Amino acid sequence: MAQSMMLYWGSGSPPCWRVMIALEEKMLQGYKHKHLSFDKNEHKCEEVKALNPRVQLPTFKHGDIVVNESFAACLYLESAFKSQGSRLIPDDPAEQALVYQRMFETNNLQQKMSFYEWYVPEEERHESTLKRNKESLITELKLWEGYLEKMGKGSYLAGKNFTMADVVCFPVIAYFPRLHCPRERCPRLMEYYEMLKDRRSIKASWPLEWLETPEGPDTFKNL
Prior knowledge:
By secondary structure, this protein is α+β, with helices and mostly antiparallel strands. About 50% of the residues lie in helices and about 5% in strands. It has ten helices and four strands; from the N terminus they run βαβαββαααααααα.
């Protein structure tokens, strides 16, 4: 079944990484894939354009089905292979609601992380803008710290079991230790990262350049 799948992906991209984790969790190893370089604009190749009008990664194809948004691809894999590998969406409506809530809240964390520095145009990098972005990210981190505190030590994002919330959010959280966020700023998130970083599906899909260069720049050292 995995042989009829094709994933176009870029290393270090949280959206790409989460789809790869989902594929591993659903025991779909052996899928076809093509690694494309963002730096070289390889993701704008004709193969991707033919499948994805937004010309973005990930681009995922299973038989005649094309799913290009990472959340949609992850949910598709869980639905299509529900009885295979890890169950990532619980049946209980209350548990399911929390999984979906944390999944979609990940967009807030990723956006505020990105706008902390990377996506601010050079001409807009005024002290007031950077200060506002920093405060926004710190406020967001406090929310996630509170979520994990409420779940209890050793818990995942939506409870005692690994779920789609973790598949979706871990690739974003992993950037904080990599970019030298002070541990005291988000101790619960750091514990969560340590708990999950050696999980089989995560290790199997670890970003290539992170293997070569385990530590990134000190972007978050002053958070």
